[in-house]
Description:
Elements: H1 2-15, E1 37-41, E2 56-64, E3 67-75, E4 81-89, E5 95-100, E6 107-112, E7 118-124, E8 127-135, E9 141-150, E10 155-164
Amino acid sequence: MTKxxxxxxxxxxxxxxxxxAGAAMPQxxxxxxxxxxxxxxxxxxxxxxxxxxxxxxxxxVAIKGNSLSWASEVxxxxxxxxxxxxxxxxxxxxxxxxxxxxxxxVSASYTLNKDGTTHVTLKSPTGRMETxxxxxxxxxxxxxxxxxxxxxxERVPWSEVWRRI
Length: 165
């Protein structure tokens, strides 16, 4: 569980981008606001529960049509710096998440929900994380609700608040 938490504590940052593709949705669907740009994790407003609280986190997102790419840099609770990179689409398919240092085989899939939120599933050999992302009406705040589930079924929930910079 610890290895997955370390990996996920950095991945959690990148997950947030999914909340806003701006892709066309059926008429009754809510608007997906665009999260392109730079974001910082608001440590004071986030609730990490049993997950390790990072010292800082920064994310840069680029969304064009249904395509999504992001890069993140997290300084973990232990002071170690981890960079992660993603390039994929809002199509429910798994795409690799690269990291420095290498965190092993990690993938992410993004799906836009009709209620205006985004669902993300992150998978690694030690478990998975299910995430729901929403963005404020003014598009300046991301709210991310995570549940980490290891291979034994242990669940670790936490939430994050991100501010556009």
